[in-house]
Amino acid sequence: MQAPNNKIVAVGEAYETKDGCLNGVHAIKKYCTAEIEDLTVGEAKIANPRFQVYKDATDKYRFRLRAPNNEIVAVGEAYEKKSGCMNGVQAVKKYCTAKIEDLTTGQILEEPTRVAEVAAGGETTLILDAPPSEAQKGSTVIFTGKLMSGNRGVGGTKVDVYDSDRSFMKDDFMASGTTQDDGTFNIKWEAKEMDWWDNTVETYAKFEGTASHKPSRSKKFTIKIL
Hints:
Layout: H1 18-31, E1 35-38, E2 50-55, E3 61-66, E4 72-75, H2 82-95, E5 100-102, E6 107-109, E7 125-128, E8 134-135, E9 140-149, E10 152-153, E11 158-163, E12 172-178, E13 184-190, E14 200-207, E15 216-217, E16 221-225
């Protein structure tokens, strides 16, 4: 999101498709009137959707916008002072009715088109079991879970594990594996820091979809690398 002075006040995550990106824009516009929660003075108490002001690993102030499902749909830059960070939140609130410019086509869109990112075939649900909250650097972390279509497992399909950057950068690939006949998977990963700015990994599993099954994505979990 760009303010009238061309300053970027918030960015979304990296998306594989334009449809997904436009859905992200739609979410920012929809939830930009949310309340502000200051995590630098206490624990989370406000229900989603909400803006959260917090300090990052470099002791800078940042904000993020969470949707009702707890997904982060926008993040701000790093600020030296909390007042600057609060001004960033207010800028998002002020300009969230802005038009959408599609730089891939050169067109101005009045409203983002909300579309589902699907492929032909049946709906799927990707379950990622909760991994350990902490892991020693160099140790082996095993991600387990199950890919389901209805009440049946989906076997013989590839599942990838990623680290979510929640910014303009593409999410980092961590590891991949293939589901068993019952849809379960067991994926090994050597623990390491994925980002230079902190020692946490926001991990999730992703199924890209096939001709017979639609893509799906698991919920996220945070692992602290020691």
